[in-house]
Amino acid sequence: MRPLHRAEDPEGWRAEVESNRSVVTQVDDGATERGKWPTSSSSAPHIMALMLDQLDLRSGMCVLEIGTGTGYNAALLAELTGAENVTTVEVDVSLADHAKGALDSAGYPVTVVTGDGMKGYRHNAPYDRIIATAAVRELPYAWVEQTRPGGLILAPWVATFHPDEPLAKLTVTADGRAEGRFGAPAWFMPMRSHRLQQETIRDTDERWAASGKPEASRYGITVTPEGQRIWLDTPDNPIG
Ligand SMILES: C[S@@+](CC[C@H](N)C(=O)[O-])C[C@H]1O[C@@H](n2cnc3c(N)ncnc32)[C@H](O)[C@@H]1O
Fold this sequence. Notes:
- The protein is α/β, with parallel strands linked by helices.
- It has one domain: Rossmann fold (3-Layer(aba) Sandwich).
- The chain is built from 6 helices and 11 strands.
- The termini are far apart.
- The relative contact order is 0.11.
- It binds S-adenosylmethionine.
- S-adenosylmethionine binds next to strand 2, helix 3 and strand 4.
């Protein structure tokens, strides 16, 4: 990583912004070792496109995004569904304020909420779609409760069963469960508080190798009020 200042290197800045890579926009939220962890970014455009495609959005759908960051993806959501239908939650006050200003001035007056997105945002529920743009280890039941039956939840995963960080895509059922499968890797930074220790990453690799290195798409997940269950191939085959 190398620092880049818009005022000092406007061309380098523009090239980075227009690239197909993710752009780190914050390296320290004050709670981590200074400069060690990227704590916010604008996601890689090809990953944003992949996730928007998976969400199968239509105009008028009510959407909750967790992890506002720069606000770029919230603007894309607003373009597809209407700004009045988009709520986005960011845990970092300064990022949320900055994104709100940028979104308003770009003509996308979405609702930006400062808070812990793991709780969702009950006030504007129910949602047709929930998209997380930071990776989770556990899917909060609040997201299931706040999604309409038949609605979708899409979240990058801090997996302890596969070395990639696959995207989980779940459908919410009328009886209050969410179920779905894992797919393509997305490599998002984890939600604050969902980071894995090096030891856990090593254990994950070993366990996955010992179980014959199954493709990520063979894994699935069921979430109920009692918690989440990761399974291999079918819901009746939970992994330990
Ligand atoms: C990869 S960035 C999001 C990219 C963003 N969607 C964009 O278009 O620029 C992840 C964001 O999630 C935020 N975040 C991390 N934990 C969070 C939490 N518990 N609740 C809400 N936001 C969180 C981080 O502060 C960071 O801004």
